[in-house]
């Protein structure tokens, strides 16, 4: 659904658009001079004059994307951000007009805003998806026989996929994504009933019994491990703890420097300690499983 501004906002947008279109265009040399003053001297007046002279580019770009259902004023603001980024990065020595350079930044800033706000579900996270999002509607109407009232035809999807260099599956997914809008989980299923979508969602979280069992099992495994660690020497315990039982583990080389031995020696001690732990824990695990089977029987 397209966003409709209130009358006050519409007047403000219109006033800004009119004032932007009245700003005089700059000559190439003056434009380059302003860019150099801003870059080399930090002259804010020069930057403001440079940016204000090309806000008409923002207006033009924002107008092209107004059918995506977002406020025109927000699109203009995002375009202005792109325009200021262009002013910060512009290099007049390359002999490219600022308008040509800024147009890309303006468009990129507006497109990024649309992708972030068009839906609560993130859309267009890859280059292919972005290309599809902003070109699918245009190509759908441009290609003869590409679409029917029920959506794209198989031939239409193949043509669009070939033009944009994407998979047919990507076209199908984006078509489905753009054909349906966001829907609240609290929205009722019908006008006459009180049931909402949320009432029919299953709870995939573990039930209280599973949570208690998980906590108990974790406590048991922790007790087993602490008991098994006590069978190791102090040096072996340190190696196991620093290599496997802390968030930021250390490398064999760093641990070797701490212990005053070679990296290879640490690896040998680690392998021996792990074998000891395995031998200590395996009988416990086996006995526990046997007990569980006995209780179940």
Helix and strand topology:
Layout: H1 7-22, H2 28-41, H3 44-52, H4 55-64, H5 72-89, H6 98-117, H7 127-142, E1 147-148, E2 151-152, H8 154-164, H9 168-179, H10 208-229, H11 234-244, H12 252-259, H13 263-296
Antiparallel strand pairs: 1-2
Helix pairs in contact: 2-3, 4-5, 4-6, 5-6, 7-9, 8-9, 10-13, 11-13, 12-13
Core attributes:
297 residues; 3 domains; 13 helices; mainly alpha; two-stranded antiparallel sheet
Report on this structure.
- The protein is an all-alpha fold and 297 residues long.
- It has 3 domains: 1-118, Four Helix Bundle (Hemerythrin (Met), subunit A) (Up-down Bundle); 124-178; 208-296, Winged helix-like DNA-binding domain superfamily/Winged helix DNA-binding domain (Arc Repressor Mutant, subunit A).
- It is built from 13 helices and 2 strands.
- β1 and β2 (151-152) form a beta hairpin.
Percent helix range: 55-70%
Q: What multimeric state do the chains show? A: single chain
CATH topology of the largest domain, by name, is Four Helix Bundle (Hemerythrin (Met), subunit A)
Gyration radius, rounded: 32 Å
Regarding CATH, which class of the largest domain?
A: Mainly Alpha
What's this model, at a glance?
This protein has 297 residues and is mainly alpha-helical. 68% of the residues lie in helices and 1% in strands. A two-stranded antiparallel ribbon has the order 1-2.
